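Two proteins, back to back. First:
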Amino acid sequence: MGDHTLDGFDGPAIATRLALSACEVHRRVSSTMDVAHAAAAAGASAGTLIIADEQEAGRGRGGRRWLSPPGHGLWMTLVERPRSAEAIDVLSLRAGLAIAEALDALAGERVALKWPNDLLVRAGKLAGILIEARWRDQRVEWVAIGVGLNVVAAADVANAAGLVPGATRLQALDAVVPALRAAVALPGALRADELARYAARDAGAGRRIVAPVAGVVVGVGTAGDLLVQTEAGVVSCRAGSLVFAEDH
């Protein structure tokens, strides 16, 4: 069990504050994702939150390392047990949209979205989302939703962005968790209103990219796919990372 605190609040206090099933706050872990999976495998209820002050091996998509220095950010993983497989397919985008909208005030500007799982402010990376599901007999048992959010951008991390000066991790937690849980509760594919709201924050729309395919980003589809105008027509991409041509 975690015996640390976040801005003076321990796990039980945070669970009560945010109406969660349970919350653990750790001083240091390898990855909150690993701790969350272990808790879920042991029977943790939906709405169990794992937070760490520091991660020694925090990770993002594709096994990439997520730097998680102590005191600089909100490093957390939420365990949920959704029933809709279709909703899981779009959960990364749906969660990103919900969190971006919830963080605008703390970020000091509209938070942009970079498909499939990055949140950006001032052209820097503010946060990333990692979704990992565990299945049994073709049915999802649980999903672990990892969020790495820079409250204060580490000076030695290139292209990192943080929240406005004075913002606290507790304020970020208060904004992120309810938004995330509301997103998880939504069924099915992305709705028309979600697509419109995503489009208003889409950092890729209209820009030329070299990956996952070469072309110009059109937007995203209802299944969370990236739509790219190529020489052969509009292509739907379900996997990979978006790389802008000017960054290549």
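And the second protein:
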Amino acid sequence: MNSATSRDAPLNQRYGTLLSCSIPASGLTLDGFLAAADGQARFCWEGPDSAVAFAGSGTAVELIAWGAGRYRQIAKYARELFAGAHLASADNRLTQPRLFGGFAFRDDFTPDNTWSIYAPAIFVLPHYQLASSGGQTWLTINTQIPPEEKPKALLPDIRSALAEKLAQLRAAERARPAAKQSPFQSIHYPMNYDAWARMIESAAERIRAGRLNKVVLARAAELRFAGRIRPRPILRYLAKHYADCYRFLFEPRPYHAFYGASPELLAAAQGTQLKTMALAGSIGRGASAEEDQALSAALMASAKDRHEHRIVAEKMRARLAPFAAALDTSPLQLLKLSNIQHLHTGIHGNLKNDIGILPLVEALHPTPALGGDPRPDALQLIRELEPIPRGWYGAPIGLIDARLNGEFAVAIRSAVAQENRAWIYAGAGIVDESQPESEWQESALKFRPMLDAHRSRT
């Protein structure tokens, strides 16, 4: 095959046939698996209450895409990668190979110092993959073999190597002490309150002038530590205190990690089944049951928050309408987390076709909960007013399986770390009634989960 043909050929022809093989791995924990991969590429995804959890280590395949066509390009690459793949346990959803990854907030994102290794879209198929759900745990190996090799002939040797790897992981987990976080040194907020107030007032003025309905504006904090930041203690803290969130780790290069605990599902697709949510409008939690109930009632009665939430829910339904055969919306309710509560509307339904997760992610991102409305005007205003790029903050992060189904969260309550520094982000939805002081306090409340997680030494 000549070089031009090679570059144009599908991935499975250029790099070989994907072979995926799994064995039961009872007793192996997610934390132990990630600990064994320290200093390597590592990935993790846990659903609410750890009902299902996936982790990966090493890199079998890395997919990167740029520009406005990044969603379609990643979908094309994924179809090519999985076409003709030999999946030794194809009927077991836990053992299916999965791509871990996400997208930048903007399709024209250019990596800067903070986000130096992050392209507008990166997905990684890990070499080793752990999956856990319902009391079952499986260890999977993903590898590519030359087209002339016969997968079935290789399976006995691959299973033997996988069993040896499992034995090594179990032995290492028994011998390894729990990692503690490096000592916290300092925190720096690049934007002071006066600059924030000017930004919020400028946005509210444009909204009152009728130029847009809503915009979401964010600020950041930089954290410094005495040594390398260790994601595992942070994930353990988040699992304990934010068990009802989507927890994730994306570390495609050693010691360059993006991680967090997001309460917001962007989209989940399984065949023709669709699930998402509208999440907008926030208030803190009370120190007593009575105070908490009063705060809940205030949020439910807030005209400003209900207006902001209604914009999000209506626009999300409109963006999904071209794909959906039917959409149902749950009644407005509260989603209560340990330090904050949100207005929440569940949206679920049936798709007209089994199109996979990525067209839905492209249609929804950014929702008005993270961008604004109308979307083009809000994105332009964010570009004008925010002093630092968002990178992957507020963008889709998640998994894609071999059938191109998957699950993505909105990467809020998140941090990006390099060596001994981390940057955390928080935003606030701005409408015509927004006041700088209250939005400053709301963003401070949203910093709390990641601040507390980084400061914890356990």
